[in-house]
Design brief:
The longest helix is centred in the last third of the chain and has 22 residues. The protein is globular, with a radius of gyration of 18 Å. It is mainly α. Helix content is about 65%, strand content about 10%.
Length: about 150
């Protein structure tokens, strides 16, 4: 039985993500003091602003306990600050520190290098079209998953 994995949307998206993640790890070793998971946390905080620890765990797609450990290490390293939520004492709010801003700039450079490698051979219109199509797919799934 032939599965034609190279034509299956879910497989291709997952495999591209896996390969990009592996390449990020390779390139980041020499230029970042952060793990890929820590970079993702900072990217979400940079994009969405400070948020609850629970929301960040959800965005990272990890259990709250795992996010807590990740954020413990990031707080110890001076990358984030956690404060109690004045409206809900059970909740903690997370925000980036100025130290994290510089690291995020370096992480974006790594991401840009990977995008250049991954999109080699595509012209500017094809690159824009691919990004636009992926954004539409994400929007479709977001409306279903985030209900």
């Amino acid at each position: 039985m032939q599965t034609h994995l190279d034509k299956r949307f879910g497989f291709l998206v997952s495999d591209v993500g896996r390969l990009c993640s592996r390449r990020f790890d390779e390139l980041a070793k020499s230029s970042l003091d952060l793990t890929r998971a820590q970079c993702r946390a900072l990217a979400y905080l940079s994009h969405f602003g400070e948020m609850s620890q629970a929301r960040l765990a959800d965005m990272l797609d990890v259990a709250p306990i795992s996010a807590g450990r990740l954020l413990d290490r990031m707080e110890e390293g001076g990358w984030i600050e956690r404060m109690p939520n004045p409206d809900d004492r059970r909740e903690r709010t997370v925000r980036m520190t100025p130290k994290a801003e510089g690291a995020l700039v370096r992480a974006r450079r790594v991401g840009d290098a990977i995008a250049t490698e991954a999109l080699a051979g595509l012209n500017a219109d094809e690159r824009e079209q691919l990004i636009a199509l992926l954004r539409r797919v994400r929007a479709n799934l977001s409306t279903i998953v985030d209900r």
